[in-house]
Amino acid sequence: MSTQYIYSFNEGNKNMAAKLGGKGANLAEMTQLGLPVPAGFTITTDACIRYLNKDQQLWDSLKEDIKHHIQLVEQDLGKEFASVSNPLLFSVRSGAAISMPGMMDTVLNLGLNDETVKGLALSTNNERFALDSYRRFIQMFGDVVKGVSSDKFEKALETVKKEANATEDSELHINHLNTLIDEYKKIYENEVGCPFPTDPFDQLFQTVESIFKSWNNERARIYRNLHDIPHDLGTAVNVQSMVYGNMGDTSGTGVAFTRNPATGENDLYGEYLINAQGEDVVAGVRTPKDIHGLKEQMPDLYDEFKHIATKLETHYKNMQDIEFTIENGRLFILQTRNGKRTAQAAINIAVDMYDEKLISKEEALMLVDPHTLIQLLHPTFDEKVLENVPVLAKGLAASPGAVSGKIYFHSEDSVVASESGEKVIIVRQVTSPEDLAGMVAAEGILTAQGGMTSHAAVVSRGMGKCCVAGASQLLIDDELKTMRIGNRTFYEGDVISLDGSTGCVYEGALPCVEPTFTGKFKQFMDWVDEVRTLGVRANADTPKDTAAALNFGADGVGLCRTEHMFFNDERITAVREMILAHSLEERETALAKLLPFQEEDFYGMFLELDDLPITIRLLDPPLHEFLPHTEEETMQLAKHLGKSTDEVRDRMITLHEVNPMLGHRGCRLAVTYPEIYRMQTRAIIQAAIRAQAKGIDVKPEIMIPLVMDVKELKYVKDHVIAEAEMVLSEQNKEVEYHVGAMIEVPRAALLSNEIAEESDFFSFGTNDLSQMTFGFSRDDAGKFLAEYEEKGIIERSPFGAIDEHGVGELLQMSINRARSTKADLKCGICGEDGGDPASIAFFDKIGYTYVSCSPFRIPVARLAAAQSAVTNKNHN
After folding, report:
1. Are 556 and 503 in the same domain?
2. pTM (2 decimals)?
3. Residue 842's domain is classified under what CATH number?
4. What distance in Å separates the CA atoms of residue 402 and residue 278, rounded to the nearest whole number?
5. Statement to judge: residues 507 and 538 lie in one domain
6. How far apart are the first and last CA of the chain?
7. Is 356:314 a contact under the CB 8 Å cutoff?
8. Cys-Cys crosslink for 837: which of 107, 222, 370, 626, Cβ 3.0 to 4.6 Å?
């Protein structure tokens, strides 16, 4: 059976996004719903993938199929493509399966040339409109298909407007537009090296090819990497009959959300322009009007649009982002998709839609992207400070957040500054897809033009970046790299502050306050905890970290890295004494100095946890990490120890290892120096006894790292138990404690059934397990992993998300074998991917007890766990 590469809008539905792209699937769905969708067809993602994987040429049968579907549209509308009397024109838009707003390409008014433009003028009785459409088409085709900079066309436009004494494009008359068309053709020919194409079919085929190619352009790849979208999906191409918003004062175009994408307020939110085409709104080159102004200007049409918006939101059970065009007083819907929104808006929308009985609690949980919750965990500006700080400029509150940083005016400069460690705010007249790398690098985005649906606003909200858009007081000079506000001039590197929740811009850096978690956020997260079955603990090493984790809703501490307690001047000196000791006696003297510090830290954490569990990993890293790194530090240490610098240096040389991450670390230290783990065990048990005296029922989980064999575990475990029992005997107390193993060596994962015989619990350290399974050094792999991702060898770095195919198979095998020995064995995950939503879903599916991640990832992990529970329930 041959592959179907093209579907008319009346053939598909919303469930065909993988084949038709999200845009094409929704156009088909809206057609099925009887909404006013301009006729057209979708060239599938399969066609894109074939094009990219073969010789990157449209094949003859596809061209014939395109022509056949054009005939179907011609029959439907009574117009003819390439006609000089009543021409049919098309908009051609890309549309991936996963929405990538602002990243892909669009060409409008396709089919115009010097002859068909006359036919358009005759058939519409509007020569000015026809010429305006033609000049727009030349610019868009040149930009999108041939890569001619839009700036060249814009400069020509500004020149003609200046000569015509016009401030708006719509003020240009016929003779001005004819002049502009001639100028645009010259620009095209000079830049491309050949005349502008006149054959409408040639125009269409070239555009389809350019959109297929756009799937792999730099900005699209950056966006997919940023949002973890696979690179092998391809994009569909939607060929849709044109409707015209630039036919006069009864025509227009707009973009609207069914709810406010910044706050979640249940009210239409968007913008429109009269006598304009769609790209004018999203490109930000003209300042649009608030959508509610349409109610005054065209009340019947506004009511019709509002009815359609409600219908689409109810049908999709989600806030919708809708593009529309008005042609001579008639409304057309060009696109709908689930709208990008801020995290706060997502929470509010989910709770409100549940309260409105539009969705169930489980559906509400699925409306919020776990990644976006990070936005809610960051500080805002201190309102008391703001009372005394003048507002420098004010724009639109396009994407919330508060950020201070140095201003940069070009994408490449922003990237360089960010890589050098600076906090960057990128400042642009208006952003475009070419600015994406700089926007990713920046902490905040500020534009002088553009509305709430401009490129800057939409992309910023999708990335969770603070954005102030359309601050019209700004006069930006890209060449001089300056920003003028009134009589003030700001230069590259000057510091400003943005408040994306109010649209205010301030001079200098401002202090922030920490967020609070109340209201709808708390209600939503309470639902999360009702639904999830997977535990979510925190990686925390101090009482302060522990308190922060509990504030974010952690179920306890899943990884306390005891070595992190050693890094301050007083403690590191005692650690170095211990490492450089020549005898057991010297080592125990140094360890005795560390004991009270360790005990006090554990005690503080136990008090914060108040009966919640904690897994404490005994000393893990190689000893070289604690040694001096400079000659000055070496000399100071020698003086403190009463030894010569040469003696200390010689001892350091003997401790040197060629591959320390696979060397003398973890439980191997305890095999050689059991007194280290005995000191740490004593500190844990003594702290637990003190906590019990405060009424806290602490049950510490003592974890032995880097285990590779059951005999190794038993040797170290015997020392841990012996020391623990000695402390309990000395103080005549009882404390319930558990001793378990950290599984991070592939051999241990394979022999988990044997190791489980001597272990009360397992915690899988997926950082080291991935490192050893792949044979990639975590510290060095960054030099080549980007190439692996770019060339499609791997989809994602194995150190941010679990490799389900390889490491994941090992994890599943290991947990199954372990539980064949102990059916109820508690098994956790404590690697970086413990905070990655896709990895969390995998861990939940294969039966792990909990994940552990950094405090700021706790809400993300909780929601991901709840969504996994909903998904598993729906699949069962």
Report:
1. no
2. 0.79
3. 3.20.20.60
4. 31
5. no
6. 33
7. no
8. 370
Q: Are residues 717 and 841 in the same domain?
A: yes
**How far apart are the C-alpha atoms of 109 and 116, rounded to whole Å?**
11
Beta bridge mates, 396: 469
Beta bridge partners of 235: 96
Helix (H) or strand (E) holding 87: strand 87-88
- Written as one string, the DSSP assignment of 617-678 is EPP-S-GGGGS--SHHHHHHHHHHHT--HHHHHHHHHHH--SSGGGSS-THHHHHH-HHHHH
The β-bridge partners of 394 are: 504
Q: Among residues 841, 852, 815, 829, which one has the least CA distance to residue 764?
A: 829
Which residue, 288, 278, 256, 250, is CA-closest to 133? 278
- What total of structural domains would you count in the chain? 3
> Whole-angstrom Cα distance, residue 706 to residue 294?
66
- Up-side HSE of residue 482: CA atoms within 13 Å toward CB? 9
Q: Which amino acid is at 685?
A: I
Q: Which of 176, 371, 455, 719 is catalytic?
A: 455
**What is the Cα–Cα distance from 762 to 741, expressed in whole angstroms?**
5
Does 282 score more than 60 pLDDT?
A: no
Share of the chain above pLDDT 70, in %: 97
Q: Considering only CA atoms, which of 467, 27, 502, 405 is closest in space to residue 241?
A: 27
- Give yes or no: 371 in active site: no
Token output for 438: 């700089």
DSSP labels, 83-113? -SSSEE-EEEEEEESS--TTTS-EEEEET--
CATH number at residue 478: 3.50.30.10
> Residue 260 carries which DSSP code?
-
Q: Are residues 318 and 399 in the same domain?
A: no
- The 10s digit of each residue's pLDDT in 644-656 is 888 878 877 877 7
Please answer whether residues 254 and 298 qualify as being in contact, where contact means their C-beta atoms are separated by less than 8 angstroms. Answer: no
Cα–Cα distance, 153 to 138 (Å, whole number): 9
- Summarize pLDDT for 9-20 with one digit per residue, the tens: 999 999 999 999
Over range 384-394, report the average pLDDT.
88
Q: Name residue 761's beta-bridge partners.
A: 826
Contact 722, 729 (CB under 8 A): no
CATH code of 266's domain: 3.30.470.20
Residue 563 · residue 621 · CB < 8 Å: yes
Taking Cα atoms as reference points, which of 501, 496, 516, 515 lies closest to residue 389? 496
Q: Which residue out of 504, 667, 830, 853 is catalytically annotated?
A: 830
Distance from C-alpha of 283 to C-alpha of 285, rounded to nearest angstrom: 6
Cα separation of 404 and 442, whole Å?
A: 11
Which segments of 2-88 does DSSP mark as H helices, in order?
Answer: 17-32, 45-53, 60-77
For the CA atoms of the chain, what is the radius of gyration? 32
Each residue of 736-745: pLDDT tens digit? 999 999 999 9
Residue 567: per-residue pLDDT: 67
Q: Are residues 741 and 810 in the same domain?
A: yes
Residue-wise pLDDT for 542-575, tens only, equals 898 899 899 999 999 999 989 877 766 678 888 8
Active site residue 455: yes
Pairing mode, strands 466-469 and 396-399: antiparallel
In this structure, are 469 and 439 located in the same domain? yes
Instruction: Say which residues have a Cβ less than 8 Å from residue 852's Cβ, sequence separation at least 6.
Output: 536, 537, 538, 539, 557, 558, 559, 615, 763, 828, 829, 830, 834
Last residue of a domain, one of 341, 364, 387: 341
